[in-house]
């Protein structure tokens, strides 16, 4: 990796100071935030990434102002005298292999989340490393995304999921063999029905080498897998991975169409261990605005649909349901589980922990000015992998703390007991203007 | 006659032989300044102090001391941060994260005043981008807006996970047709003993795009009329204009759709061209029959409010309707989506849906509204306010009522205006291809009324949340 200049060091120092300072100021940056990720959610994520705890200053850290979904759900906590004791043991682990067939190992993660696929090229290698280090420390996973597997991740390979997507960029036999979990990305929530899209400016020589393509030429992943026109074809794909790496768990990442419940059942019969549902409102890479907002349903609506259908089919306890696409806070993740998911997959929240302001300029010019979604050699240096791992780890610590608090107040000693407990939720209709403002 | 004429170019699709439909886009930057998105407020004395402090800290190393956080050149002018170049600011906030005591970035309140409560400022931004570039708006970082909402925002379109034999849009592999047919399409044909058709024959106008241009308000300046007409001609679509306006400004051609009202009936004598489509304003059975007789070969549509009951007109043989909502998409106090679904369903129940064409207008202001309106039952959409915003018109107050809306049109340079509308059309068509491609539909005609491929917030929420305390549906 290139060396930092004195200018870069100056900016890193000023940025770190800013991340710490802003949440403590009596006013918020007026241009920060949006209805989903409000300024308070962004600032409170920075606090959590700094301290490992939710803010005590009154900053909102649980919900945004999107006027629907998670932002209209809240937990019906027990009266305080029925909460579990503070020292009571609470299990936040989940299994990732619940199938009763097959030789694959029974992998468990101690927290009900792992990191989403973000490809080399769409984010910098430094950010990938930061995520991998955090995943290793927390004994959970991160995912390569579809841009290949940089060898710098190899020390963390027990905690890295290899993604196989339609473009097959950088997919080789060894990258499959390195991974305890292989994820097939059929679709992604931010651009359902459309392939991945990496603009030429980000395809540096290193990215092109990794993806086995040409530098500075835009890359489009096709959609869909052109060898998959049926559930049988889908099974053929999973069998192909199984033949190469029989021990790997298989995850299938899909978007949220009308028939997402049927897709889930099809994936189960094809042999998937994990169904990763990616709702429409998340996403870290570039996507057409029309796709983000309009195509496919938000994750809050897809989870119960799939959970109930799997129950109805009698296979709910054989398939792990991981949800993503707009999980911003510990409360979102707990609500996703109460709606029927086993766990969640985090993407944007990790980037916000590293300083993302959600400005949406990831694809403009040299890429992210904070060094996150960029391959610019100088900008990438703004994120030191060790600093990044620390920030993501602290965010995880805060999420774990909050999840334990939620479970304690619900009288549950295991996160597994929260799954599908919609009776513990309450719906509160939003008031105010279109973005929730008064 | 209009004095300034747009240089004519051949309309799309007029070439001999097969040519794939393609809209030629060219950059067409705004002609009138738009307020920058952000205001960059620099405390100048603090900036100077900061530079001095850093000069000391970095031992006079100017390169380090003057290295600024903005990578977009806002502080790259001759005087750096003392005269920030606001128009370059993209609101990334890196500068104010690093130096909160020196610089603040604020959303520009002037920008927030663009549009109105329906055509919101962010829609204006999008339309300007589309008209400027002809491209599909792409951004990072996921969806930033509300969960769902009112009107078109309360529905999502479906996608197909694996079984998806078509693809167009950005990859351009397989062809997805955006052609629609408007007209009278009898359910079957009758022939006599010699094999000659005896019954009514189809009268159909085929358009390469499922959108047309609707009539602008009476305050529209003549160059706007010319721009609408010429852009429609080049796109191979239609421009709807009041008959007296067509006559006064010499806007004639098969692509011009005259709207004939009872009051203008006398003007019919002066009509010298054969339109493909003509609209009768309101329902007048006698006038309808006369129009059909006079303009044999033209498709005759009846223009009525979107909430109108069509049954008497259908019974009287009308087969093409232009259903008009106000500019906020409501008619008779209800939003277009629900009204269209009901009208479509009634025609399906009557077994007439395939014979009837529904054109709709009002409230379709974003690219995604086109497929949503078609999903609800329209065959094609007539565009209005979105076109004017693309041409940098400004609303004075709420632009809702078709009669009372006050729209300030800028002085137009016609060829610039035509290019802006071509760009907008291309962007919207490409976005339509994205939506159709995601669904696996090979043609937009199959989208019409295909409610199984639409997802409504109310229904999905009911399914997901019905058993949750406090959810009242
Ligand atoms: S460009 Fe903006 S939205 Fe994208 S990662 Fe960077 S800070 Fe976040
Ligand atoms: S907000 Fe970003 S683009 Fe705007 S001046 Fe600051 S650094 Fe530059």
UniProtKB/TrEMBL annotation, chain A:
<feature type="domain" description="4Fe-4S ferredoxin-type">
    <location>
        <begin position="347"/>
        <end position="378"/>
    </location>
</feature>
<dbReference type="Pfam" id="PF01645">
    <property type="entry name" value="Glu_synthase"/>
</dbReference>
<dbReference type="InterPro" id="IPR017896">
    <property type="entry name" value="4Fe4S_Fe-S-bd"/>
</dbReference>
<dbReference type="GO" id="GO:0006537">
    <property type="term" value="P:glutamate biosynthetic process"/>
</dbReference>
<dbReference type="GO" id="GO:0004355">
    <property type="term" value="F:glutamate synthase (NADPH) activity"/>
</dbReference>
<dbReference type="InterPro" id="IPR002932">
    <property type="entry name" value="Glu_synthdom"/>
</dbReference>
<protein>
    <recommendedName>
        <fullName>glutamate synthase (NADPH)</fullName>
        <ecNumber>1.4.1.13</ecNumber>
    </recommendedName>
</protein>
<dbReference type="InterPro" id="IPR024188">
    <property type="entry name" value="GltB"/>
</dbReference>
<keyword id="KW-0560">Oxidoreductase</keyword>
<comment type="similarity">
    <text>Belongs to the glutamate synthase family.</text>
</comment>
<dbReference type="InterPro" id="IPR013785">
    <property type="entry name" value="Aldolase_TIM"/>
</dbReference>
From TrEMBL, chain B:
<dbReference type="Pfam" id="PF01645">
    <property type="entry name" value="Glu_synthase"/>
</dbReference>
<dbReference type="GO" id="GO:0006537">
    <property type="term" value="P:glutamate biosynthetic process"/>
</dbReference>
<dbReference type="InterPro" id="IPR013785">
    <property type="entry name" value="Aldolase_TIM"/>
</dbReference>
<dbReference type="InterPro" id="IPR002932">
    <property type="entry name" value="Glu_synthdom"/>
</dbReference>
<protein>
    <recommendedName>
        <fullName>Glutamate synthase domain-containing protein</fullName>
    </recommendedName>
</protein>
<feature type="domain" description="Glutamate synthase">
    <location>
        <begin position="340"/>
        <end position="399"/>
    </location>
</feature>
<dbReference type="GO" id="GO:0015930">
    <property type="term" value="F:glutamate synthase activity"/>
</dbReference>
<comment type="similarity">
    <text>Belongs to the glutamate synthase family.</text>
</comment>
